[in-house]
Amino acid sequence: MVAGPGIAQVRQAVATACRAPSLHNSQPWRWRMAAGRLELHADGSRSVPVADPLGRQMVISCGAALHHLTVAVTRYATACRVERLPDPSDPMHLATVTFEQIPEARVPAAAEQVAALRRAIDARRTDRRPFAPPQSNDLTGLGEDAVEMFAATLTLLGADGPARLLEAAQCSASVRRYDPDYHAELYWWAGHVAVSEGVPRAVLPAAGPVPVGREFPVGTLTSPPGPDRAALAVISTDADTRLDWLRSGEALSHVLLTATVRALATCPLTNLTEVAASRRMVGEAAAAGGERRGFAQIVVRLGRGPVGELPVTGRRPIEEVWEA
Ligand SMILES: Cc1cc2nc3c(=O)[nH]c(=O)nc-3n(C[C@H](O)[C@H](O)[C@H](O)COP(=O)(O)O)c2cc1C
């Protein structure tokens, strides 16, 4: 057997897990060590109530951080046993994680694959610029194992996907156009020079969003000329419970990190799934692509990204989210 993680290592793994994506970089999570186990709690004080009144995206974001954690701890030859929603009386307590040593015999087998995923945590960025299309094998099998691991499916949309999702994006944008609360909230979170939370101007395209993208404040990021040729995919679940949301976030993280390993650029999109009418349209687009699960949770753009590193979007200091 190899040694399991000490508390300093768990803290370091949590810091790495906090590189996970979250709605508007709100980072709505708190981590607490209790009796040798790590608890993940949603932090309601960091919710985004107009865009996300039910807290669905808050839980999806936490699910992404939970999956990032399970990848991060492999650095210490450790695996996680995850109990989801362990306390029926506390819906904000999303998971309790216990750590298990990985028997040495099992370490080398998957080691390179897992190490690649770990490296992807630091390399991944949300890229809002237009993409070139994925190349022939880029998407083969992507997300297939998410079904087994997280009961969520990734459906790649066919040739009619861009037109269908454009219609959904236009629908949600028109619902929001004269909603001052939505715009006040969006401008609170995005378009500043903030360092540790929100979406900074440096990662928002000066040319505005791609056609299916969210209309953020205009930023300073230059984009290559030409249309967006990204592949579009939808993560769906059978039901729409808190557990489905959590698992969708885990599946999202798995898909984003795997795509990053394959040198693909990625962008999660929820402007399309926040408004009931446009969420229905996304569900119909997924169904047309063969999806049988009824609840569209999140859209992902995938493609060959423009050359040139994107700036890193900052995170809150670990002290603000960690308690031991
Ligand atoms: C639930 C969820 C919803 C998101 N929705 C959008 C979106 O609609 N548009 C977008 O450009 N990015 C979206 N993102 C990406 C976040 O803005 C991004 O993760 C955050 O700003 C941190 O940046 P990073 O991913 O580059 O680390 C979403 C991420 C999550 C987890």
From TrEMBL:
SUPFAM superfamilies: FMN-dependent nitroreductase-like. GO terms for molecular function: oxidoreductase activity. InterPro entries: Nitroreductase-like (IPR000415), Nitroreductase/BluB (IPR050627). This is NAD(P)H nitroreductase. It comes from Rhodococcus spongiicola.
